[in-house]
Amino acid sequence: MTLLGWLQILLFFALVLAVTKPLGLYLFHVFEGPTQPLPKVLGPVERVLLKLCGVDPKREQTWVQYTLSLLAFSLFSVLLVYLLQRLQHVLPLNPQGFAAVGPELAFNTAVSFTTNTNWQAYGGESSLSYLTQMAGLAWQNFVSAAAGVCVAVALARGFTRRPGPEGQKTLGNFWVDLVRGTLYVLLPICTVYALFLVSQGVLQNLAPYRELTTLEGVKQTLAMGPVASQEAIKMLGTNGGGFFNANSAHPFENPTPLTNLVQLFSIFAIPAALTYTYGKMARDTKQGWALFAAMSVLFFAGVAAAYAAESQANPAVAAAQVAQAGNMEGKEARFGISASALFATVTTDASCGAVNSMHDSFTALGGLVPLVNIQLGEVIFGGVGAGLYGMLVMVVLAVFIAGLMVGRTPEYLGKKIEAKEMKLSMLYVLIFPLVILGLGAVAAVIPQGVSSLNNAGPHGLSEILYAYSSGTGNNGSAFAGLNANTPFWNISLGLAMLAGRFLMIIPVLAIAGSMVGKKTVAPGPGTFPTNGALFTGLLVSVVVIVGALTFFPALSLGPLVEHFLGQAGKVF
């Protein structure tokens, strides 16, 4: 590790910290303000969109109505993206003449982008038309991110709204929140963001691919396309679906160290800002800063571990008696070890599947960090919206534990946490490992699962664990040593993505519906404060303990065994 490497990490975090309050305040005005920003410019557009959809912005929904609206919209999205892929060979904007995508792969990709996972079992530049990339994938990058923010805002309303004759049992309107999140937040930022990327050398055109001849006389096809517009929302919306198969390691997606820093910053910007938005909604900004602090502690622990691990020599290369200055296998020379370790940590803290290096080539402990980040529930700032509502579920668990310590009914923001909320929280917590470990166990013993592995032994198990963790956690990154484009993997990962998104969102919205109608009680001498350092420490402990108790046995058989075998000179 070097001083320059740490300065890069600290600069990144300073930028995130600087934007948290102003962007969080802007988000508060978008979703909770009496009037939204730029009312004369964007207000008429919002009203037209809502009128075309037949939505009354003043009519709020119960948690059941909010959930059904989200599920209906998501089902429509899956069908649309599926049909675009299956029919792309007869649709326009297909200059390369790509054939229709197969049914299993089309299902996997449609589910992937609808759930904000953006797992890619395909090579974008070699299989998808411009229309599919823009009208299908890029469009889903916007609305799936906005849908995640909708759920987070709905849960925040459940905790923070006070009882009253109006809105006592409602959480807002999904359609209004979806439009506002897209129109007032994602679209304006991405417009400026995409122009910046173009200025740095990221492609943005609809030109046919170019056939070139290198100086050595070898013919090469240079892919073109509308890259910058998809790259911007890919990062800002914590999606991760790259236009090119190499993702953010590709020089046409991420050409310079400056674009690398800006892309990293944009991943954390909205998730961090939402913590301040939550504090404003709770009428106590310290509540939001406590969540921010817990996320920050976990972030620095992860990035320090990843950076330290990747600064060590690769055991396989060391066995060949080659001098090393850290593990550079699978990394771009223009980014180096520190920026690669930071990128891997940030994208797996958030539900962003973007990569600028190959996680499969990390050391055993270096690869352990992104895997653990996902398995903790991606609550370390997390996906857009998903990080906040995931952390708030952990808050419910932490408050319950604190209530047991002082011997009274647990309370949060003046509302009692009762048996119903605890059951829903535990359902949320248990769904995640059940899907990952259940499907992972099946894949590890049947031929359709293990036949796709490029590695045997503990590293092969890590590839399986990572794939299902990434799919269920709606992350989308991969160890890259797994051939996931088979019927078994396309279907099983598609099901994992659906479960990880919607079977976990439903309990979250049910908690919101249960909490929104509760009366608030004044804090008493036994009330555990939830806006200080003590609660932050308890919250961090709950997140780590839940993840450790659930996944430690599986991790012990994968990356941890691989590490000790590597130290003994046995490399897989």
Topology of this protein?
Blueprint: H1 3-32, H2 43-52, H3 63-86, H4 103-114, H5 124-127, H6 130-160, H7 174-200, E1 210-213, E2 219-222, H8 227-236, H9 257-281, H10 285-310, H11 315-319, H12 336-349, H13 364-375, H14 386-406, E3 411-412, E4 415-416, H15 419-443, H16 447-450, H17 457-472, H18 487-516, H19 533-567
Antiparallel strand pairs: 1-2, 3-4
Transmembrane segments: 63-84, 142-160, 181-203, 290-309, 379-406, 427-446, 488-512, 533-555
GO molecular function: hydrolase activity; P-type potassium transmembrane transporter activity; potassium ion binding
Subcellular location: Cell membrane
Q: Overview of this structure, please?
A:
InterPro entries: KdpA. The protein is mainly alpha-helical and 572 residues long. It has a domain of 236 residues. Helices cover 63% and strands 2% of the residues. The strands form two sheets. The protein has a two-stranded antiparallel sheet. It has a two-stranded antiparallel sheet with strand order 3-4. Helix 15 packs across helix 17 and helix 17 packs across helix 18. The relative contact order is 0.12. The model has no long low-confidence stretch (mean pLDDT 91).
Keywords:
572 residues; mainly alpha; two-stranded antiparallel sheet; 19 helices; 63% helix; 2% strand; KdpA; hydrolase; P-type potassium transmembrane transporter activity; Potassium-transporting ATPase potassium-binding subunit; membrane
Low-confidence stretches: none
Strand content: under 5%
How many strands, which pairing sense, and closed or not: the largest β-sheet? 2 strands, antiparallel
Tell me the series of helices and strands, N- to C-terminal.
HHHHHHHEEHHHHHHHEEHHHHH
